[in-house]
Amino acid sequence: MSKANILVIDDEAQIRKLLEITLQSNDYVVAQAATAKEGLVTAANHPPDMVILDLGLPDINGHEVLKQLREWYTNPVIILSVQSDETDIIKALDNGANDYLVKPFRTGELLARIRSVLRSKVIDELTPVINIGDLQIDLTLRTVKKGIEAIKLTATEYNLLSLFARNEGKVLTHQYLLREVWGPGYINQSQYLRVFVAQLRKKIENDPNRPDYLLTESGVGYRMVGKE
Amino acid sequence: MVTSRFSRIDRKYQYIISVLIVGIVASACYPLSHIVSYRALGFILLISVSLIAMVFDILPVLLAAALSALIWDFFFIPPYFTFQVGTTEDIIMLCMYFVVAMVNAALTYKIRRMEKASILQEERENTVKLYNTLLNSLSHELRTPIATIVGATDNLQSNTAKLTPQNRYELVAEISKASFRLNQQVENLLNMSRLESGFIQPKKDWCDINEVVYDTVKRIEENKIPQQIGISINPDIPLFKTDKGMLEQILYNLLNNASLYTPPLSRIDVSAMCHADVLEIIVEDNGPGFPKEELDHVFDKFYRLKNTQTGGTGLGLSIVRGFTEALDGSVSLENRTTGGARFTLQIAAETSYLKNMKHE
Questions:
Q1: Least CB-CB distance to B244: which of A104, A155, A219?
Q2: Higher-confidence position of A18 and B126
Q3: Domain architecture of chain A: domains with CATH
Q4: Is the pTM of this model over 0.95?
Q5: Which of A91, A174, A186, A194 to substitute to test the interface with B, most B CBs within 10 Å?
């Protein structure tokens, strides 16, 4: 893949500088905008492969910027937030953000998220098997193997795992998971999710209490990752 | 603080109540006037004015004093039902009654004002003291990491030729540690101001206690602490409906406190269980424990143990208590008989035993 072009929209010059150096030294091409208006214009004139958007912009609220972007822009958006307020993050994810980072963040973490959203594997009905770490999920046969060992899952466990697997690297909110696996009537029944994630971890993790695959995003949701 | 509660009564009602009291006392005395001398009854009226003076503002009291003097004169001093006074002696008595009642009112008022002023003064002094403590510990806790960052970056910028790669690596590691510490202090301050503002609203949702404990321990272990942390959780523990973020912050602060104030290689143990819909989490260590006389104060804001090493703002444990109370729980501290400290957290919450659910 040619060098990915990333647009950074953040009003803090220090953060822009930090991101510029980090991203350029990792072979990304960086464009910058200090205000929402400038960012929206730049994105429209030279559509980037990805946008990093700060939620706390001085001129237009970050959620509004995201909404305006999403009216036409389909590439990944990662949001940056200073508040560890989860409702803000969930709102952005619901409005089409692909991922989020809370300031202060580790640049290693940022690069991993960028790689993950840019990879954006196209997974549809035609993708027969997904490999994540030692796990092998066969979407046609609805079977799961860890290494060579077959793992027996209940139907709900399988539905949950395959949803995670099809969205590898992406954070999935509690409400999204409940809606997709159990149905719209269950979006407030988070106890189902807690129990099934715990059960799933017992079956797929080496140590269910120190998970490698199914990570908790506190207050937001879960994320499935392969061992890097 | 009885006085202040009464003086908060509306001034209008104070007048009415004063008049009523004088009226009632006078009516009660009236039937006695045949058997008790009117001079003794004058003292009873005077006492009722004194009692009013203890709780009401000066003007209603002066009204009560004047009114009671007139009533005494009109109804009790012969000749009855006139404002005339028969003997010279009684004129002197009446004048003295009036003066004593006024002086009484004025003096009580003055004393109460001084009392109020001294309470205010004391409160102000306490605030100043608290503020100074805060400024001292804060300026230390914030400036130390800032000084480290400034110093290390200066060194890296201007002293490049003399620094070995090892030096450079160490300086960068110090910057990293300092910024982590700075972030943690800011987090504490934000949490404290959330508590102080009173706007803290727990967001309760179902929590897997295993996840809460293991994730928090993992976060603490990322600080490369020199102690060992053991975890024991009852396998049958249900889900609890509580604020996971706040619970994690409580546990983090308890673990952080244990790791800061116990020697390297100490053992810290976390255990969690459920007693009849009460979540109980215990954090204990085998360090030196707390001085007995300070056990009661460790949760106070800005409280630091006497003779502790520098570091810490005295905020961590007060946030523990504030958050626990916001979750309708309680936290207590005791020294273990075998040595070391034991923090016990108890939070009553809705539980769910869905573990063995078959939802297919």
A1: A219
A2: A18
A3: 5-119 (3.40.50.2300), 129-224 (1.10.10.10)
A4: no
A5: A194
